[in-house]
Amino acid sequence: MDKITTGIAGTLESNDVMVTVELRTEGPLNIDLESNVIHQFGKLIEKTARETLEELGVKHGLIKIVDKGALDYAIRARIITAVNRAQRREVS
To answer: Which residues are annotated as modified residue O-(phosphoribosyl dephospho-coenzyme A)serine in the UniProt record (predicted)?
Structure first.
């Protein structure tokens, strides 16, 4: 049976990003991206997300990213925090 855990980080304020992570024990890794700059930076945001998830060893789940103009480092930080929360790890 597929086990699901969830973690959330970020806000919907301008220049921030909200990341919701549903980690699973099996299945694909899907990224659902909403952004007001998706046409200009969508591929870069998704690349940053996939690289960060790979570094964290995340292989299965659904990652929902609602971007409000966040910079690269903020996107990475929010993903790391959301994954840690889903894995019930302390975030330092």
So the answer is: 14
CA–CA distance, 33 with 41 (Å, rounded to integer): 11
Q: Are 32 and 64 in contact (CB under 8 A)?
A: yes
In a domain, residue 92? The reply is no
User: Domain for residue 60, yes or no?
Assistant: yes
Number of CB atoms found within 10 A of residue 21's CB? 26
Q: Is residue 55 part of a domain?
A: yes
Q: What is the pTM of this model?
A: 0.91
Provide the Cα torsion 11, 82, 65, 29; round to 10°: -170
Q: For residue range 78-89, what is the model confidence (pLDDT) as tens digits?
A: 999 999 999 986
Q: Residue 1 CA to chain centroid, in angstroms?
A: 24
Starting at the edge strand found earlier in the chain, the sheet holding 17-24 runs 4-9, 17-24, 61-67, 29-35
